[in-house]
């Protein structure tokens, strides 16, 4: 093969003498690499999206799920609890069944006699009652898959009512809005690390809202009805809450708020001047509004004039803490004149710990700030008033133990997974909720409080019960239908709701989630479980489904599969067209090299070896193109975000809807796609080389050598 | 002694555009170390005969034995590679390769190791030195003169150490002085290395240097014996 390869490579080196062949081979390489680039890029991204979608789909619904069948609910095993004193005459959830010491709590000596139509017990040959729950868990534990973990889940529903307290249009006024939604309430499994990927980091406005929430005297603002739910805040409580808040958050940047920030004399620059717009009352300057840059002056002036203020441009001159206000009209200055910084002026900030320890109200907090205003640096200590958090960094301490001071927001755990802070963190706020991203669009921020209500029988009447709650985190439900209505709470809260509500949908309600590290194992685990249940004689009590079977995933997954197959087919067709260039290139090459073929044959090269040379030429062209295409694809994938931004800019709108594709497109090279494209290109280019190779092998050396 | 090449009653006819039998029964035995010059008028089929002897072309009938094996039923390129070296009138060097690479090509085809210090490489260097081109090893062949090209062709023909050298008008494209040099080199090399040579030529000087002169005329070969000048006189 060495001879064939040496000659083939020699033929492929572009030469001026064979300009036409060189040009065609160059074009072939370009076209094939372009197609390879496109195919690898598109299929990698598609596969990444598919993987992401599947992960999103199973992030909240485990890859494998077991739900009790109708036979389970009609069985002696399930119904016997409601007639047994041992079980307090109430049916048990799966978790309770698992924890109970006896499979059969019925005691004929104490409990009343069973009716004739009561289902007969389903027993093993040795007389033991079949225990589908314990046997089921046992079957799961006996399987040997990486990270396999059963978790009993409960989904119930409740009515969520959130009260959104926001600053009004007039300074100092607070508006209150309500948001009510009937929601599915699911117990949050703290060990499910996939949910972590879906939890969204808090935004600056979330921190601000949470901060004002823990500082607000709820009882004063809300209706009378609400005050009975929320605990009254005490100054000690606020101080503790502030310490908790800042223990987990590093403030990096503060912005002046929309009310404007009054520049205290302590922050006056030593030297220099600031330009601003003065507001006049009775011919006197009462306020000077200073924008961040000089360019903003005209727009600021327009804005203020539109509000009906009488304005004039002024120059503030600072000289060793002396302030002079200079204007064209020589206006007099009111004694109480204030310098107000326009909204959204950023300052680097650092909290002074001493102020935190003694803070009783928010404005007791003192920050060391540093920033530039119209090119002049402003530096000093300020109270936290008319300022808002613009940038903060969470101090992630994974060693937070349950019961210790935990943040007010959903936080990651050391062993993976995350935790929703509960009532124990703050009597002020209530139970934490992890709600869907959709709530953000309705204006909900972290710290918004409300109630989760449900109805329960008390004595003879149906009464509304309420659990105080607050928004502790947002998650991205991705593709999950009804994701927006699914709210995660601490398992204890879920259990309270579960005991008072029933969900008829078997996919919700009660069941066992089976988590796996590798999603590819899902189908095998499902089959192994079905097999094991049959052997244990409990198969009629359980429906086992892998994520492929879920009602809400099947259409998406099937659509994804057919899309992928369709595009692969199109890709192969495009590759065939691109590789057909190789045929023309090789035929030209054979014609060009006829004399050499004759010479090589006279030296003992067989027609088969000559054919191999040209076959190799096709293959090598394909391979080189493939390598170029793949390298280009890798580079593009690395800079995909830039490309997407460019596309968005070109179209004037978002190129890929975040609702479907997430905030960024997946940019991992798919090795299966790489394998497919490499194999397809090599096979097609080899096939393209066949015709020219046969033509080459048919060259008769005597004719060629004689003609000279 | 058994002939290294033996042609028996070789016939060759061309059927297009009209049937012409160009060789009507040629028989020939070539012993090891023997040299034969085939002369004759143009168009009598000298080159065709040479191609048939070199297994590049199949005869219409007859038999050809190389190293004792009949090769007509299974003409194998490997056999050509191992036993036969060609020298053409138009040199037929590979233009994209250097002098050394051209000489090594038969060894590469044979699958031999041609790396530096290999046997094949050493032999190629020896042959190029023998033909006086040891200073042109890495020259591209297009930079060489006609005489130099033919010397490369001769070195290449000898590379795989074949028993038989077939030369078709080796000096046909060269001037008189160069021709003489090539003739001497060809005959000397062949004698020195004990190769059998068949040379098709119109050049009486070259023919006279060979052991035998055969005339191909009317589709038959006739032996003219050693004294070739008779042939020249006849002309």
Question: Descriptors for this entry?
Answer:
heterodimer; A: 708 residues; alpha+beta; ten-stranded mixed β-sheet; 41% helix; 24% strand; flat; B: 235 residues; alpha/beta; Rossmann fold; six-stranded mixed β-sheet; four-stranded antiparallel β-sheet; 8 helices; 10 strands; disordered C terminus
Can you walk through the features of this model?
The complex is a heterodimer of chains A (708) and B (235). Chain A is of the alpha+beta class and 708 residues long. Chain A has four domains: 209 residues, no CATH class; 116 residues, no CATH class; 177 residues, no CATH class; 140 residues, no CATH class. Chain A is built from 23 helices and 23 strands. In chain A, a hairpin with a 6-residue loop joins strand 2 and strand 3. In chain A, helix 2 runs antiparallel to helix 17, helix 2 packs across helix 19 and helix 6 packs across helix 16. About 2% of the residues of chain A have low confidence. Chain B has 235 residues and is an alpha/beta fold. Chain B has one domain: Rossmann fold (3-Layer(aba) Sandwich). Chain B contains eight helices and ten strands. In chain B, the strands form two sheets. Chain B has a six-stranded mixed β-sheet with strand order 6-7-8-3-9-10, sandwiched between helices. Chain B starts with a strand and ends with a helix. Classes of the chains: A alpha+beta (708), B alpha/beta (235). At the A-B interface, helix 1, helix 18 and helix 23 of A face helix 1, helix 2 and helix 3 of B.
